[in-house]
């Protein structure tokens, strides 16, 4: 089966998010009152796997090994079956 | 004695390090392309600065997962010295051979200027030629140089005297103003528990000849060379 995993990587609470802070300020200049903005990085990964469980496990491994740095980042995985 | 200078795609301080090692310190040094998986015959390693793989994902993340890292770990396990400068420091933390992580500067822009650094310990293969507490000058050039680690790790680094360099003012005080990137506890460089792997954000190779404004960095390479001569 083919699956698409959407991995979202966010800086952990307390880590700097300059894009978010700048966007919040700029929105303020446009007259929008925004409490906070956090930006995130998104990876869409398409892969073949025997089952959704296996696919998720593989993507989790990819996150642990390369895509995220657990010291400063959190990540979430959303999986959907393709075709 | 022969020291390996590792080149990844995007490394750009390799030739500066080679110049300092061969022409200034006077030891044998050779650049090694990252696809070389065998570092037999080398007595030490320098992972120089640059922007390996464009710093995509995170600075140093991709270089840290290349096969040459296994050879570097092997050399380190033999007790031989491994020095990571700037991007090299980022690579070594991403490879988990050094604690913590290097994240975006507190004032989030690329900073390139001289800094004052205090030598916190001389008990490493890289700092034996300094005096403890000595304030030296080296330049930084980075966007992601803020050292971060969780509290228990920070406490361990302090307890084991693994913090080798801190950013300070001219009088040697570790103030916020002297901290160019918001590094926790003004940390500019750390070693592993075995003390033979050093990562630092400032560039000693850009401060190894007085014509450049400082020759303080030379002692890092001279200490490393002495250590190799005495032990291997």
In a few lines, what is going on in this structure?
Chain A has one domain: Mth169, Chain: A (2-Layer Sandwich), CATH 3.30.1280.10.
Can you walk me through this structure?
The complex is a heterodimer of chains A (83) and B (232). Chain A is built from 2 helices and 3 strands, in the order βαβαβ. Chain A has a single domain, classed as Phosphoribosylformylglycinamidine synthase subunit PurS (Mth169, Chain: A, 2-Layer Sandwich). Chain A has a 3-stranded antiparallel β-sheet with strand order 2-1-3, covered by helices on one side. Helix content of chain A is 34%, strand content 33%. Chain B has one domain (2-231): 3-Layer(aba) Sandwich (Rossmann fold). The longest helix of chain B has 14 residues, at 218-231. Chain B starts with a strand and ends with a helix. Chain A binds chain B through residues 11, 15-16, 18, 65-67, 69, 71-72, and chain B through 57-58, 61-62, 65, 94, 100-101, 103-104, 106, 108, 146, 148-150, 182.
Distance between the termini of chain B: 8 Å
Structural class of chain A: alpha+beta
Oligomer: heterodimer
Which ranges of chain B are low-confidence, i.e. pLDDT below 50, for 5 or more consecutive residues?
A: none
What string, H for helix and E for strand, traces the elements of chain A in order?
EHEHE
**Annotation, overall tally of beta strands of chain A:** 3
Rg of chain A:
16 Å
Determine the CATH superfamily of chain B.
Class I glutamine amidotransferase (GATase) domain
Q: Averaging pLDDT over every residue of chain B, what do you get?
A: 97
Helix count from the secondary structure assignment of chain B: 5
């Amino acid at each position: 089966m083919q699956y698409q995993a959407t991995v979202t990587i966010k800086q952990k609470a307390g880590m700097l998010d300059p894009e978010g802070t700048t966007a919040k300020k700029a929105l303020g200049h446009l007259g929008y009152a925004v409490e906070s903005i956090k930006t995130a990085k998104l990876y869409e990964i398409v892969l073949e796997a025997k089952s959704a469980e296996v696919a998720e496990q593989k993507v989790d491994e990819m996150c642990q090994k390369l895509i995220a740095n657990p010291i400063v980042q959190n990540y979430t995985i959303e999986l959907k079956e393709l075709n | 004695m022969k020291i390996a200078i590792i080149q990844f795609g995007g490394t750009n301080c390799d030739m500066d390090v080679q110049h300092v090692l061969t022409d200034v310190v006077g030891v044998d040094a050779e650049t090694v392309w990252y696809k070389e998986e065998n570092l037999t015959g080398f007595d030490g390693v320098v992972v120089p600065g640059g922007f390996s793989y464009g710093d995509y994902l995170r600075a140093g993340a991709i270089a840290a997962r290349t096969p040459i890292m296994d050879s570097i770990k092997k050399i380190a396990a033999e007790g031989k010295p491994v020095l990571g400068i700037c991007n090299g420091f980022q690579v070594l933390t991403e490879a988990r051979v050094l604690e913590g992580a290097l994240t975006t500067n507190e004032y989030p822009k690329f900073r390139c200027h001289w800094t004052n650094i205090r030598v916190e310990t001389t008990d490493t293969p890289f700092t034996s030629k300094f005096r403890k507490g000595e304030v030296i000058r080296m330049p930084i050039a980075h966007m992601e140089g803020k050292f971060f680690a969780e509290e228990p790790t920070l406490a361990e680094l302090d307890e084991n005297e693994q913090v080798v360099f801190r950013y300070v003012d001219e009088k040697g005080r570790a103030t916020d103003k002297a901290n160019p990137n918001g590094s926790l506890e003004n940390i500019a460089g750390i070693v592993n528990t075995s003390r033979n792997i050093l990562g630092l954000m400032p560039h000693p190779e850009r401060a190894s000849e007085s014509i450049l404004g400082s020759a303080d960095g030379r002692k890092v390479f001279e200490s490393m060379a002495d250590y190799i001569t005495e032990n291997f």
